[in-house]
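Support request, please re-run this one:
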Amino acid sequence: MRISLLAFLVALFLTSYTAFGQRNCGTMQHYHEAVKKNPEIGERRKQSEQIFRQNLQNLSNKKISNALITIPVVVHVVYHTTQENIPDEQIHSQIERLNKDFQKLNTDIVNVPPYFQPVIGNAQIQFVLAKRTPDGSPTTGITRTYTEKTFFNSNDEMKFSNTGGIDAWDPLKYLNIWVCNLSGSLLGYAQFPNETLETDGIVINYQHFGETETGGDFNLGRTATHEVGHYFNLYHIWGDATCGDDEVNDTPIQEEDNIGCPEFPQSTCGNEMSDMFMNYMDYVNDACMIMFSKGQVQRMRYAITFYRPGLATSDGAIPPGSYCSGLQIMYESVGSVSDGSGSENYNNNSDCKYLIQPAGATSISLNFTEFSLSDEDVLTIYDGDNSDFPLLGSYTGTTLPPTVTSSGGSILLHFSSNGSGTSSGWSANYTSTIVTPEHCNGHVVLTEESGIITDGSSYEYYQPLNECSWLIKPEGEHRIRLQFEEFDVEKDYDFLEIYDGEDITAPVLATLTGFELPGDIMSTGNKMFIRWITDDYVNFSGFKAIYSQNKTTDVTQPAEPSEFKIYPNPANSFIIIEKINNTLGNHQSVKIMNMVGQTVMEETSLETLTQININNWEPGMYYLIINDSDRVFTSKIRKY
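Re-run finished. Output below.
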């Protein structure tokens, strides 16, 4: 008996060591089992991947908003022993971990190697334990279910009350997480979008959920980070094949999963520098997985927008009896917004935000139809997507506010009420001014002494399989200076080539790719040729640059900001350009261009005070360029 007991203890130790020694995710196994049972799941997945690629490249596919998305979460604790009935504190630690990892707030993000830092992504996803059940009752967002089963595997039995678990809450409105004792070394598994609705969600072993003392190398809650990545349509970073493809272009191809904590660089499959082993979708220890890439973020937010839209608009995070809570996001170009109380009075102690952010909007106008707030209850409106932007107005009382118009494509409303006294509330209709992007096409010759060059995508992603070129050759023998305002290009696949002459036979000044804003580029002569080339896969935001003609043989320096003053800014009816330096003559020229590079105003000389009428301009952002002999002054101005 002693020998048998000893053998049993050794086997138990080895089993425990295996469980804690290497990460084991069951997502792909669960997916393949689901396809065996229902081949339509596999077909739907193939179709969804094709649609994803098409939509990503289609001109009608606008950029996915980067506003914070709030996801209501319900945690189902299914337990047989007291150890499996994990405390609330452990659950809260897991929610905190998800919020840090999906908002790039994890302190260990500084450990990402410099080579990969330019592609670190911020998913801007916030997870909140549900505050109301599907039937509208209050909840902590945690359910607890005793089961006679001593363990579960990846066959989904924990997801149904008739097989020892608990049924999911409405998967269209809640992220369901089941926490239970999983068999063997299985840490967790997830379900991809567009599979069986009744089983949608993720499952985590109770020993590895949140910050634990029993999780070994997987004790920081990153098993859930990994599985939620699958839930939002991410694959393992090695594509579950030797040198496979995870359908994300900024994650290098790698041979297989990495384990433990590898040393950088760790290169396989001929990748340029190293595997991205510190990615949440690899198999390394919790302490060593610390980032999502920009491409992964793009894929996840696409999944929410097109496959799981009900999560972003769910009322699951709003307590019962509350008419508003947290942040609501509106993407439609025309619509209405209100405190949500309808025919009732709004609640005391309300704290609600409304972000209106239509794709392609250059301005948004609010017209109030009802307004009645109790004293000290306030509606505050900001000219952007957060409270750091300029204040457009702050309103209380019963006087209907005037029309409020933003100077850009976002406007934020913040409604707060105190603990005493309520009223009928407020409502408003809104409209947006939308600019249609003009993607670059063919060859353009530019003869003006200054202007804007852009891929033309504006609020969209740039086009696949695109080739455009520009020849800059203003009159005169002056050099050309190129200053970049924006640069977000698929690294190593899409390129902006800059030549020191009038075509591609001239010497190369620069070949630009990636995400870092380039420094200024100067020609040696009076011509500069620029060529833009993209492939047929991933597309990003593109580029925008200001070119200007320099009037000396030396490298031109920008004019000091103290030499010119632009006010008011933002402005509605006029702006004033004031020369601060009285030694400047009248040899300055000024040009103002809109965001798609069209000249809207041009003057050949400036007085000490020059007033420019902008009353008839469309609201939005504009570029102002002043050429002063051998110097260039640039500024952004907002028309509201």
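The chain has a mean pLDDT of 85. The radius of gyration is 29 Å.
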